[in-house]
Structures are given as C-alpha cells and as structure tokens.
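Changelog-adjacent note: as of this version, every example in the card shows the full chain rather than a window. The one below runs 213 residues end to end.
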Amino acid sequence: MNHDISKPVPQGSNGAQDAENSRIAAIANELERLCAVHEAQSGDCQQNVSRFETEQRAAEKMAKANGYWIPMTDIFDLGVPGPSGNENDTYVGDIVVFKVNNLLNSGSITSLLNKILMHNAIFPDTAYSFYGFAGFDGRTVQPVIAQPRIASAHPATQIMIDTYMAALGFEKTSTEGRFKNATYEVWDLLPRNVLVDSEGDIFVVDAEIKHID
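Full-length structure tokens:
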C-alpha cells in the first residue's frame, strides 16, 4: 500500500521543503481516507471503536507498510534525551531535534500534521519534517517529527518575540504571547518556545496555531 506517500525529503532548499510539506499532507490525507473507509465499513463506528482509536490503528498499519514504524523500545536511538514538555518528549541529534508527540494538545494525528503544515508556512526557518510513528504494537501511536537544531541559542525575551511577530505581519493581542493576522492565530509564543542565536536571529521552535475562520 502506497498512496503517493514518499520517503522523507532531505531539507535545505525551498523545493525540498515544499516536497516535504506535500508528503506530510499526503500522510494526513491518507489517514483521513483510511478512517473514512473504516467508518463506511463499520456503519456507526461509535458502537465499536472511537475515531481516535481508528486513526491510531490506521497510522500503525500505514507506518509498518511504508517503513516508518519505530518500536518504542528503539526510541532512544533517535538521540540524547532532551527537555520534555506538555506535548513532546525530545531527543537531540547532531543537526536535528526529534519530538515524540503525545497528541495531548492536538487531539489527533491529522490535527497535529495540519498544525505542522501551518508552522512550516509561518516559520520556515524551523520547519518540521515527518520522521515516523512510534509505539508498541496495538497500543498508543505517537508521531515523531524532526526540527533543525538551533546551536548556540538561548530563550528570546518577550520584547524580541513581539518585535519578530510584528515584522511577520502579526498583531499582538491582549494575551501575552498570542498574535493574529488575517489568516492565522498563533499563541504560546513565550520565551520557553522561542530562541535567539548569537547573531540575534529569532527561531520559533514551538507554537500553537489555528486558521482563523
């Protein structure tokens, strides 16, 4: 089974990132398709299994079929364990940081993948790539995403963050760390989620994002 889901695309150019974004979108679309097929075959799926569980099993099946299933027993092979947050456990490699996402904020894999695509559109300097799905067979599946490692960096100040977002065309709201423009609302942009390097460049490494209806 391979519905135009390609292998990870090496990053380093706009073309490569566009290809990776297309791959992420294809994975999200395939998960939606598999869930829809299951629901059509099962009738009222709520009588048997939740949508979340359907998506989990579809993700596991797809990952194993396409070669990006990561047994949870192998998770430490990703890199050196780093800081853990509300949503991610991190593993630090030489040039990337892997994030194993527990879906606590997103609620579903497809929601997370769509949020990643929004992040990549707004913050291309810290664009995510999709690495795989981790888990134990038949149990909870957690997406694994990768992001460039920002060397020699420290948390930005809130003033730096506000200035950076203004330069991107976002308006500051009455809530600290929350911004919006005509298309997106972005929040949780606080010093713990935004870095500044030795040259003064700003990098958003984590954010909550939604489309404005």
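Structural remarks: Residues 155 and 192 are 6 Å apart (CA to CA).
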